[in-house]
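Structure ticket #2291
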Amino acid sequence: MSRLARLPLACLLALAAVVAAGCGGEPHDVRTQGETEGLYIEVDELTYQIQMSRILEPASREDQGYLRGIAEGIEPTAEEVWFAIFLRVQNQTDETHRSADRFEIVDTTNKTYRPVGLDLRSNVFAYRPAEVSPGTVIPEPDSPSFNGPIQGDLILFKVQVRSLYNRPLQFRISSTRGTGTTGIIDIDV
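Resolution: structure written out below.
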């Protein structure tokens, strides 16, 4: 066989070795930190992704639907805004896992914000922790969140405007199993 003919064969064998090495069933690297929205991170064997984050405007017709089910008397002051995280959760394992129910936003001064409670009966976009079966996602297919333009369930925060300048803000997802694992995603503001 000529030298020139052996080169493509050697490249093909090297490529096959790389592919085979990736298919060995070995555990993959678990990413628990994302430097930007859109990246997938893992917490308790579930994959989380921020579909979008943004300030909500109560006067906006679209945003009024996201702001349903807020208790009376907790409206933002002039120094605060409603801030929405639209989250997607996927189970890529062969077992059912419970999705997280502990979230927070932290700015660079360590000011911490926790989600505002929403009435789940009146807000169809609100995130609901659930048992996530293998191969399924939150939001559930054919739900308003899944079929909407963002395709993520809403987690709502009331954030001080000054924190929006203390960037990057971090969205933190805490383990529900008590493993101490915390997933962190830097939020685009």
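Closing remark: The first strand starts at residue 33 and ends at 34.
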